[in-house]
Structure formats: C-alpha cells, structure tokens
C-alpha cells in the first residue's frame, strides 16, 4: 500500500488537530489521494508533558531527528513564534520536503523568503491555516488569481477581537469583562496582546498582500489600531443607530499599483457583509476586476477548523505531486 510519511512540529491545539484528523479520516484521505498518510514523528518542546496517548509514533524534542529521517515527505509546522520555526522550515525545504504551516507570525515575516526557497527546491508550501483558520481564503484567492486580478481584500481576521466587540455590544460589557470571558472560553491566549492590539490581524493581512499583490506594503506605513482603547459606550451608542464596530484589516492597490493597508476598528452599516458576523467567526471580502465582490465566512481558529485547513493543504500537495512522491 503506497504511503506518505509526515512529521508534525508542535503538538498543541493545532498539531493535535492535524494528528486527530489524519487518524479519523485515514480511509477518506486514502480514497481521495490513493495514499495512506502515516505520522512518523512528532516534535515537541517538553517531552515530559502529559498528552493524549499516541501509540507507535516517535516523540522527540530534537529537530535533527526529523531532518535526519530519510522517510519524511511532508512536514506540518504548528509551533509558536518566528524562531526556531523559520530555521526548521528552511532546513526542511532544503532537504526537499514539502511544508504545511499554521504559524502566521513566522509566515508574515518569512513567507516570501520561504516561497522563493521552495520554488528553487521544487517543493510546495501550504499555508491556508495562517489566515482565518478554517476559512479557505488562501485557496480562494489563489484560484481567483488564475484568471482575474484582486483589487482589494477586507477581513475580520481576529476572532478574539470580534468576540469581544460582539459581547461589548450585546451585553454592554466592559473591554476587560469581555476579554476575561474570551480567555475563560479558551478563545483568547493567556497573553492576548497580539489579538487586541491588532498585530495578529496585521500579520494575516501581510500574508494576504503577498499572495494577492506579490508584495507587502512597508510595515511601518500601515496604521495598526487594536480594539483595546475603544470605549464601550461608543460601541453601544453606535448599535442604537444600527451601526456595529468591527475590527477590519484592509489592503488594496493604490493608483500607482502599490499595496496600501490599514488595520483598526471600523463602523459598519446594516448593508455591509460584516454587519452580521458575530462571535469568533472570521470573514473576508475579496474584490476582483471581473468577479466583483465575494465574501467567505467561517471559524477563524480552533483545533478542528485549523487542522482541517492543513489537511486540505496536504491533499492538495499530494494531488499536485502524485507523480513525484515516491511511495514508501
Ligand atoms: N490555536 C489556533 O486555533 C490557531 C489557529 C491558526 C493558527 N495557529 C497557529 O498555529 C501555531 C500553533 O498554535 P497552537 O494553538 O497549537 O499552540 P500551542 O497549543 O501553544 O502548541 C504549541 C506546540 O508547539 C510546541 N513548541 C513550542 N515551541 C517549540 C519549540 N521551540 N520546539 C519544538 N516544539 C515547540 C509546544 O510543545 P509542548 O507541547 O512541549 O509545549 C506545543 O506542542 C501557532 O503558530 C499559532 O499562531 C493557531
């Protein structure tokens, strides 16, 4: 039976989601690709941490074990932060393996360099999970680009901010109360500063800019405002006038054909596609030359939505590479 061997870097929310889906959908993946996908090795930081039971798979805290394993075809990356993730993925590409990442912080900064490196080494990169979790925005924009030109992308790209704004509007909660509730429900990180300051949405916007426009604006020139200074009475007053605050990341091409972006709270009227996007959902509007405007909505985070975006990347890579993936 032909099989593809994969490694998973990181076994937290996302890494575990990838592992679970690979086990639960083993037969479906085989039916759809013709390959059995085997998890060969998992990289973690702390081998002694208590985790779900995993049988017959090597758990390591040494990345060299993955790099030195000649059987690995594809590496999933779901660790946190720019380094060592960037170095690990550069080494993985150099070795000739395909990579699939969820790490938006790393990919916003180093995605362009990784893409060039991957092209040079003739391997593929899946990064659907870096933007809007389970919403298939990377695939959608990629498909649109084959016969059309993207002019603008607007997104609610941070589910935590949207949850907080929704709670402040609906229940009159203060920012602190709504943030506490987001943390209690597991939507916000223990350190939520990247979410509420707008930096998380900014990084996702930069990934979309690279994809849609082939370049990112100068990061210093993009105004980034979070939701952390928005008074709750402004949110409830706006709601009385049938307006809602959404945290919107916006990127477009100016008259010179250069990308310009903004990230911050915006007042949205009842006719706008973002008006009804409540809670932790994400939404993205893509405007193109020929299609006009298209809105995609869905869960922006979580074990299964994010894991399933990475599995969709896996299936895409297998189908594209079927001729060159040598069955083990
Ligand atoms: N959570 C989501 O819904 C979501 C959605 C989209 C994208 N993402 C992105 O996906 C990535 C993973 O997120 P997560 O929520 O799964 O994080 P998490 O639950 O904190 O898990 C992180 C995992 O990475 C491992 N790790 C951290 N640093 C490492 C290092 N230096 N070497 C080896 N392993 C290391 C940790 O090992 P230990 O288990 O030993 O601590 C842990 O297993 C992040 O980049 C995040 O931004 C997350």
UniProtKB/TrEMBL annotation:
UniProt keywords (A-Z) are: Amino-acid biosynthesis, Methionine biosynthesis, NADP, Oxidoreductase, Threonine biosynthesis
What pathway is this protein a component of?
Amino-acid biosynthesis; L-methionine biosynthesis via de novo pathway; L-homoserine from L-aspartate: step 3/3; Amino-acid biosynthesis; L-threonine biosynthesis; L-threonine from L-aspartate: step 3/5
| Pfam families documented for this protein | Homoserine_dh, NAD_binding_3
User: What species does this protein belong to?
Assistant: Sporosarcina highlanderae
Domain Homoserine dehydrogenase catalytic as annotated: residue spans = 136-315
Protein name per UniProt: Homoserine dehydrogenase
Q: In which family does this protein belong, per the annotation? A: Belongs to the homoserine dehydrogenase family.
Instruction: Report which superkingdom the organism of origin falls in.
Output: Bacteria
Which reaction is catalysed here? Answer: L-homoserine + NADP(+) = L-aspartate 4-semialdehyde + NADPH + H(+)
**MF annotations from Gene Ontology:** homoserine dehydrogenase activity
InterPro entries in alphabetical order:
Asp/hSer_DH_NAD-bd, HDH_cat, HDH_CS, HDH_short, NAD(P)-bd_dom_sf
Residue ranges of every copy of the Aspartate/homoserine dehydrogenase NAD-binding domain listed in the record: 10-127
Q: Which SUPFAM superfamilies match?
A: Glyceraldehyde-3-phosphate dehydrogenase-like, C-terminal domain (SSF55347), NAD(P)-binding Rossmann-fold domains (SSF51735)
Q: What is its EC number?
A: 1.1.1.3
Q: What class of enzyme is it?
A: oxidoreductase
């Amino acid at each position: 039976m032909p099989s593809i061997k994969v490694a998973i870097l990181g076994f937290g929310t996302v890494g575990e989601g990838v592992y679970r889906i690979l086990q639960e959908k083993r037969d479906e993946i085989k039916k759809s690709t013709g390959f059995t996908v085997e998890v060969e090795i998992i990289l973690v930081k702390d081998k002694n941490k208590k985790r779900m039971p995993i049988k017959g798979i090597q758990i390591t805290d040494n990345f060299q074990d993955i790099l030195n394993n000649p059987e690995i075809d594809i590496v999933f990356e779901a660790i946190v932060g720019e380094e060592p993730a960037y170095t690990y993925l550069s080494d993985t590409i150099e070795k000739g393996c395909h990579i699939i990442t969820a790490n938006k912080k790393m990919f916003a900064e180093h995605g362009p360099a990784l893409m060039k490196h991957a092209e040079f080494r003739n391997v593929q990169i899946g990064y659907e999970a870096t933007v809007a979790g389970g919403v298939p925005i990377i695939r959608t924009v990629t498909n649109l680009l084959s016969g059309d030109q993207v002019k603008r992308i607007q997104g609610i790209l941070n589910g935590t901010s949207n949850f907080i704004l929704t709670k402040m509007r609906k229940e009159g909660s203060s920012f602190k109360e709504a943030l506490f509730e987001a943390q209690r429900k597991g939507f916000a990180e223990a350190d939520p500063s990247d979410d509420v300051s707008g930096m998380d949405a900014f990084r996702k916007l930069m990934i979309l800019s690279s994809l849609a426009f082939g370049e990112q604006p100068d990061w210093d020139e993009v105004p980034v405002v979070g939701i952390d200074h928005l008074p709750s009475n402004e949110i409830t007053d706006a709601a009385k006038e049938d307006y809602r605050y959404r945290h919107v990341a916006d990127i477009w091409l100016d008259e010179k054909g250069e990308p310009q972006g903004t990230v911050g709270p915006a007042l949205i009227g009842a006719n706008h596609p973002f008006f009804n996007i409540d809670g932790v959902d994400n939404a993205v509007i893509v405007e193109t030359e020929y299609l006009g405007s298209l809105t995609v909505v869905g869960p922006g985070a979580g074990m299964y939505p994010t894991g399933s975006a990475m599995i969709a990347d896996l299936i895409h890579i297998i189908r594209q590479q079927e001729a060159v993936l040598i069955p083990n």
